[in-house]
Design goal:
The chain has two domains: 153 residues, Regulatory protein AraC (Jelly Rolls); 118 residues, Arc Repressor Mutant, subunit A, CATH 1.10.10.60. The protein is built from eleven helices and nine strands. The termini are far apart. The N terminus is likely disordered.
């Protein structure tokens, strides 16, 4: 079966380096600026703490309303944006970090238990953290405030606060989210070994004509087993994952070049411009032309 039937809203800012696999940002948005946070995605995870104003925060098709003092957790690979939800200026801090900053993937057991569940099929782990909510959310907000407002800026301190935060987050949110029981975690560990090489291959060769036979062979599974396992692991079929990745990659050319949309579609694996337009609209909730207009200088 051919997967070419007919992505980059990837943020170009580098959030991490080999020596510091995290970054901290402070952003101020003037009254009337729209959007307050442009639509983008990145491979890192993120905690965003709103310090003034109110935001309507959007992750994929899930909205979160944030007031000053609230925060939101953004898993890796998730499209997200935000609009002002008040007539006040907006400001926020963001901690963007590699999963490896938490726990090294070489520590297989700990990584697979505490980090892996959030890496795939991950929108369900996105959540807001509110000042007037449960004590565990308040504890996480306290850790975030320590990271953003403490005079201590050493990496070891930031990592220690993040680990304390993540322990609270894991016990009260990740472990209680459907699909993180012992049997599921064991299955996810098995699927990670089988499917991560396939996912890497798909991302490296997304512009090519990939087939189910080719991908299932990498995983050493039959086509049927591969499709079922891939859907369980990522929440998407292999074809839906590939199309979404192509769309996300194409956003870079739309936002930063003057290339024709037809040429961009072809470059990123779409042989049919009509299909590209429909797929783009489904993923991004706007057309390629509408998306490009956001980046045109007035």
């Amino acid at each position: 079966m051919n997967l070419t039937a007919d992505t980059k809203l990837y943020e170009q800012i580098s959030h991490t380096t080999d020596s510091a696999p995290y970054s901290i940002h402070f952003t101020e948005v003037s009254i009337g600026a729209d959007p307050a946070l442009y639509l983008h995605w990145h491979k890192e995870m993120e905690f965003l703490l709103l310090t003034s104003g109110a935001l309507l925060f959007q992750m994929e098709d899930t909205p979160f309303t944030l007031q000053a003092g609230d925060a939101v957790f953004i898993p890796s690979g998730i499209l997200h944006s935000a609009k002002s939800h008040s007539d006040q200026p907006i400001s926020f801090y963001a901690l963007v970090f590699s999963p490896e900053f938490l726990i090294s993937s070489f520590d297989t057991t700990a990584y697979n238990t505490y980090v892996l569940p959030v890496m795939h099929n991950n929108l369900k782990f996105a959540t807001s953290l509110q000042t007037n909510h449960s004590s565990w959310q308040q504890n996480i907000l306290s850790n975030l405030n320590n990271i953003f407002f403490s005079n201590i800026k050493e990496e070891l301190f930031i990592r220690s606060q993040l680990l304390l935060l993540w322990n609270t987050f894991y016990q009260n949110h990740i472990a209680k989210t459907k699909g993180t029981d012992t049997n599921h975690l064991t299955l996810n560990r098995t699927l990670s070994g089988q499917l991560q090489p396939v996912i890497n291959y798909m991302q490296e060769n997304y512009q090519q004509a990939l087939t189910l036979n080719e991908l299932s062979s990498i995983a050493h599974l039959s086509e049927g087993q591969f499709c079922r396992s891939f859907k369980h692991f990522t929440g998407m079929t292999p074809f839906a994952y590939l199309v979404r990745y192509r769309i996300l990659q194409s956003c870079h050319d739309l936002s930063s070049t003057n290339k024709k949309i037809t040429d961009i579609a072809t470059t990123h694996g779409f042989n049919n411009i009509s299909y590209y337009n429909r797929a783009f609209l489904k993923v991004m909730n706007l057309t390629p032309t509408e998306y490009r207009k956001q980046f045109l200088k007035p």
